[in-house]
Fold this sequence. Notes:
2 domains; flat
Amino acid sequence: MIPALFIAFGVMLVACSLMVILHKSPVTSALFLVLAFCSLAGIYLLLRAEFVAMVQVVVYAGAIMVLFLFVIMYLNLKRDVEHGVDIVLRRAAGWILGAALLVAAASFFGRQWGAGPIAPDDPSASVAGNTAAIGRLLYTRYLFPFEITSMLLLVAMVGAVVIAKGRGPHVSRASAGEARADRTADPEEPA
């Protein structure tokens, strides 16, 4: 079962990566990149690296892709013209995917649910997962680099706010109205 899932996630990763490069629309390419990140997270889950998989989804598929999509939308790139066939294919793919999700949900909810784990835990085995090990190392041995990284991110966030606010003097509404009145008074003068 696991080798089949590994191959499926690998094929999905390669296909989505190719679609990122080959697709004409930047927004669609960014969404295929999200799918590629999620399939890579699935591969990490199969390798029992749960923490890395969740970081992959939260940081890359979440935060970084929101930033990419914000930049793409901010640039206001031209949108491809859609034809009737494209709309029909998208709707058909949406209905098929929705039906597949409903079948999967029905199969999960059709099973009997029990409270707690299926097999009783062995109280003598106190094995911590890799997330606990990473957290222990991060807050003991690598505490200083972790704090320096958080300070650098704080400085970058303050810098982004300063850049977004602008450096030049702000034009008040009264002076903007006067500038419009001056332009309409002399139509021969270029604006």
